[in-house]
Design goal:
Layout (H helix, E strand, L loop, with lengths): L1 H26 L6 H4 L5 H4 L7 E5 L3 H17 L4 E6 L2 H7 L7 E4 L5 H11 L1 E7 L5 H9 L4 E6 L3 H9 L1 H8 L4 E4 L2 H10 L6 E3 L14 H10 L7 E8 L3 H12 L6 E7 L5 H10 L4 E3 L16 E3 L6 H6 L3 E4 L12 H4 L5 E3 L7 H10 L2 E3 L6 H9 L2 H17 L3 H9 L4
Parallel strand pairs: 1-2, 1-4, 2-3, 4-5, 5-6, 6-7, 8-9, 8-12, 9-11, 10-11, 12-13, 13-14
Helix pairs in contact: 4-5, 6-7, 7-9, 12-17
Length: about 425
């Protein structure tokens, strides 16, 4: 009865979903890719897969795609005779996943419209579907289960903000959660929460956080100098990367930067909005504050005009975050000055780069706690403390080294989630 009602509703919602998706794609200057979203994958692309058994991994956007990387590497090594297909919902997620050498094919995830789901599963015929974090689509999971395809939730988590919402609609999610063959959750709390929403306890496990399994190494001076050369940044500047910033945060960061320049005359800022399509909006803000800047997309390999202290590199591209962390002396991780929920602190830590982050880390509470426990970063009590804290870090080389080394130690001490996930995957392959 539930699935019948859901499919009737999906017919009525299809038109507004199409218009919303079209508006979102056009406003961001990206193709809507309706063919793939209706389950029609180009036969020439499917030819890449051939007759190999297909492992399908779905990662909604950028964060999930990056978190899936250790698992993709392990799958490629463990199952070389299988084809690996990666799907994404967002355009930025697709752009990132397309660069992964482990995948054979990258597509957009279909709308949860029954004909679209039928079509894509019929053409791909996966032997296993792995869904990253908490992406629950009733038709997709049910149709896969009906076809005898195991569906596994990987790196599952239920954030504080989402939990009450999921509980309120547990009558909706319960039916879909029962379709999963396995649910690998990040923590014991995540396991308890998803069981409360409707997952089967006997199929729900604590497998750890795949994000802890990213490769780590201290950045050497030669590597840092080479990276800075690619971005026209002099090697003698003190570089701060403000990563994954959101609306309302850039004003606070640039105000702090302007204040810091009065005493830190060799400081340079790399500003990376979470969504690159906001670059024009951020550029206008830079102009209003009379800060000289250049966009990442205007830099060329032959560009001999180096940046100077007090200027800004505005990054309007994707897929370069780890390189930008590696060339920096200090990272501010955004989404945390405003109540957005924060972003991943493990990326700078994996390179021995000290991090500063704001008070709003609800979506990364466990990671933030670990970073503070190891002394790998500094959390601001209030956004107004940003300039003061940055000044403390950039003027104290010993502090930067200690924070960076603690981050590398944290990465060495944690991990193992990939191994636990692969043990569960082995039950189905």
């Amino acid at each position: 009865m539930f699935f019948f009602a859901y499919n009737i509703l999906s017919i009525f919602l299809l038109v507004p979903v199409i218009f919303y998706h079209l508006y979102r794609s056009v406003s961001r200057g990206r193709p809507p890719a309706f063919r793939e979203r209706f389950g029609l994958v180009d036969p020439t692309e499917l030819a890449v897969i051939g007759k190999k058994p297909v492992i399908w991994l779905h990662a909604v956007s950028v964060g999930e795609s990056i978190a899936a990387r250790p698992l993709l590497k392990a799958l490629r090594m463990q199952y070389p005779d299988h084809a690996i297909l990666v799907s994404n919902t967002t355009e930025t997620g697709r752009a990132i996943s397309s660069t992964f050498p482990e995948k054979d094919l990258c597509i957009y995830f279909p709308f949860d419209f029954l004909p679209a789901v039928h079509s894509v599963l019929q053409s791909i015929k996966p032997v296993l579907i792995i869904i990253m974090e908490t992406e629950i689509w009733p038709n997709f999971t049910r149709e896969a289960t009906n076809r005898g395809i195991p569906v596994m939730l990987a790196n599952g988590r239920i954030s504080d903000r989402s939990y009450s919402r999921y509980l309120k609609f547990d009558w909706f999610f319960r039916h879909s959660l029962q379709q999963f063959s396995s649910l690998c959750m990040q923590t014991k709390v995540d396991r308890e929460r998803i069981i409360a929403i409707g997952a089967a306890p006997e199929r729900t496990f604590v497998s750890g956080n795949l994000k802890y399994d990213i490769p780590y190494h201290p950045v050497q001076n030669e590597e840092r100098a080479e990276l800075r050369g690619q971005y026209a940044i002099p090697v003698d500047l003190m570089v701060m990367v403000a990563a994954s910033t959101h609306p309302g945060e850039e004003e606070l960061i640039l105000s702090a930067y302007h204040e810091l320049l009065a005493t830190c005359d060799n400081l340079f800022l790399v500003l990376v909005p979470r969504h690159p399509e906001r670059a024009t909006e951020v550029a206008l803000l830079l102009e209003r504050m009379s800060l000289s800047y250049r966009r990442r997309t205007t830099l060329t390999p032959s560009d001999e005009t180096l940046f100077q202290a007090g200027e800004v590199l505005l990054v309007d591209s994707i897929g370069e975050m780890m390189g930008l962390y590696a060339l920096s002396d200090l990272a501010f991780v955004g989404g945390s000055l405003k109540p957005t929920g924060g972003h991943n602190l493990l990326e700078p830590a994996s390179l021995g780069i000290p991090s500063i982050f704001g008070p709003h880390m609800n979506n990364f509470r466990e990671i933030a706690h670990l970073v503070l426990q190891y002394g790998a970063g500094i959390q601001l009590e209030t956004p107004e403390k940003l300039a003061e804290t940055v000044r403390t870090v950039v003027t104290n080389e010993t502090l930067r080294q200690v924070l960076g080394q603690n981050g590398l130690k944290m990465m060495r001490d944690t991990g193992g989630a990939t191994k636990h996930h692969m043990q569960e995957i082995a039950r189905y392959l």
